[in-house]
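Input set for joint prediction.
Command: fold jointly, output tokens.
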Amino acid sequence: MTKTYDLTVIGGGPGGYTAALQAAERGRKVALIEEDFLGGTCLNRGCIPSKTLLKHAEVIESIEKAKSWGIETGDLVLSFDKMRKRKDDVIEKLRGGIAFLLKQGKIDVYNGRGTAVTKHRIEIEKQDGAESIETKELIIATGSSPAIPPIPGLKDIQFDTSDTIFDIPDIPASVVIIGGGVIGLELACIFQSLQSKVTIIEAAPSIIPQEDEEASKLLERELKKKGIHIAKKTTVTEVTESEGVKAVHASDDKGETHIFTAERLLVCVGRRPSVSAVSQLDLQLDGPFIKVNDKMQTSVEGVYAVGDVAGGYQLAHAAMAEAAVAVSHICGGTEKMSADIMPRCIYTLPEVASVGLTEKEAKAKGLNVRAERFDLAASGKALAAGEQTGFIKLVYDTAYGEVIGATMVGPHVTEMISEASSFMYLEGTAEEMAKMIHPHPTISEGFYEAALDIVSKLRK
Amino acid sequence: MPKEIFMPKLSSTMEVGTLLQWFKEEGDSVEIGEPLFEIMTDKINIEVEAYDDGIFLKKYYEADDQIPVNAVIGYIGEANEQVPSEPPAQSDEDSPGSSESSSSGADSSSPAEAPKTPNEKVRATPAARKTAKDHHVAIHEVSGTGPKGRVQKRDVEAAVHSSEKEQRVSPLAEKVAAREGINLANVAGSGAHGKIMKSDVTAAAVQTAESSPVKTQKLAGMRKVIADRMSQSAFTAPHVTLTSEIDMTKAKEIRKQLLPAIEKETGYRLSFTEIMIHAVSNVLTRHPHINMTFEQNELHFHDDVHIGLAVAVKDGLMVPVISHANQKGLKQLTKEAKEIGRNARDQKLLPDQLKGSTFTISNLGMYAIDTFTPIINQPEVAILGVGRIQEKPVVVDGEIQVRPMMGVSLSFDHRVVDGAPAAAFLTDLKKVLEQPFELLM
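tokens >
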């Protein structure tokens, strides 16, 4: 007999499992279909493995730095096997956590490939045969996969993406990374700390171009200082391989050609949405993405899309927020998705975190804003930690001191960005930030310092 | 010793005055005769002058506050002299202006439930008073739970707490509201637990802008007085309105004949208003049951006729009085009516010119109005509404003739006036106007 559900979610990543859990919590009978591992890209091939390895990179950097502080450890011995094992343990543990929560929510998890035949009938291809279920409503959370650019020669050689790079057997002597976006930069930091020779090729004139210009410049400078080679305004024309050595042929903006060789080639040029599960539903698309409104509804009633497949910010927490909106709407709520206060974190060394608008974006929108910057070089805690590279920058409107955006570069800023988000979300202004007591000594005091300067400028 | 500044009592019916503005700020020096503040009383704005020289030490009230007569509203004295931080409780005996109140007896006792005013003695514990002062809570607005309704400290604290709890608003929303002039009391919050967020305020601001030209104006000053008095009259006196039509042929002739002479002597043109005042005054002397006032459950019969004349002024209405109208001829009435009308419009009336009327005439004859139902100007018991004069076919001696006809409406207070005497009055008035030579008798 065909099983019938109130809600079926295709995709078990952050968007999918959040939707399933929240709907179940509200008394809906829910099915979750996942063809691979629970946790999606984030847990298995993205956020979590990269952060585990970046912790290793941070420790390695600390040990290097400690030498000049009088703490010497002798020669560094790296065991990539152990590192990978730790990464796998972390992933395993988190997968178990999600499975436990889903079980607790009495959610039926189907391990197979789900395809929507109609908006009410889903076919599931499992290892042990096919099954079909009926559903009242449907949430598509099928995510995305690394985009493969049409570079001549690429399909003829072995190369890595974020899908495969976390499971390579050895530390490569050298890596060429095509793409200077968030993923490419984080992986560059990992391999650089593992003593690989790292080259980044980026077609744009700057790295992380969507972020604050000063943050982009500072990060570039710091990465270069570590020994990462960054080739900007450089376009890849062809890739070749001979005797296990990859050669990337590229030309820069002056028309000069360069050849970068490396043991491994890593392609990080963005992600493409995975829409094949719903190809039979004839949903309206927005570019490659499924088109949704601010309630995450697709063009077909009763079908919602959340996460990478629906475009917008391709971030796990964005997917989770979208899932919450979709479930709220299914349950009769009126919530709407707003990405105005979406924190963005880059876990490079140093980290970059931001929320809201950059000064440039705000001015382009016609807002009357100014920016105030506090340099960590003036922070006692940052100096004590030997991590004085970075800044906290607040973009504020000149009428009320409203926090319009924040960008931070430095240690732990991915943890601290939520202070800026909180002020924005709860609508505090620079005035309250300058009055709120911040602990001393901390790096987060930088908020207070910047806010004090804002308040004194607003008074004038 | 600092000298008190009192809310003056300017008429027998005046119980409270509305402070319109201060002309001086605390710390300013003041000379005798300098305007100190402006108040709105029964239908009039008055600038009150300082009675003492010195430094304006203290003001207890702000614009739009309603203050009982004879209450201390501030102090004048020498610099740095100590004055009470709260207005002293009112004593009835030794305040200036009380002579008037004692003569009329209007103040004696109003059994109606009087809301506590700032100056009334409130039973409260010292701790409650201190707490109220610390939190800027008006203690007379706190309801006491102690013995005999005494206000306890906990009552004040509860009042403070409830006023703080009323509204949750984000700091940013508060700032935007302050700058945009949005009253947060009218804004619904969309945040957690109804917290007002910036978007709510901006939406309210847009709404306000979209729904323009709707402006919000607090009822104050003269408008408030009119509102209070109109509803007081309409809701206490059962109004009955009688209407009639008066043939104004002869009255028109009289006007035509007298106009040049009166204009030559006074510079004013005789109008039907004065003819009405003259006729009404004459007829009223024969109808003492109409020419009376009704106050404090007592009927007051007046030998003389004092006519109140409703005058439209900017943003309101005033009723200046022509006293002893029954003793005055058309020339004198024309002069007086024109002058008080102009003074009313210029807000230059003296308080005496606004009180003591025994009957009111409201003339809308300059508009396309035939008859209407005027509201009695209390404590009077009747009012005459005058409509336009219109040429109409009427039957005279069995023939249809065209005559200038004027509609009149008499509203009377049926508590103290019955239909028959009111009808008799209106009939007499009609006779007099149709045979105006009777006026010469």
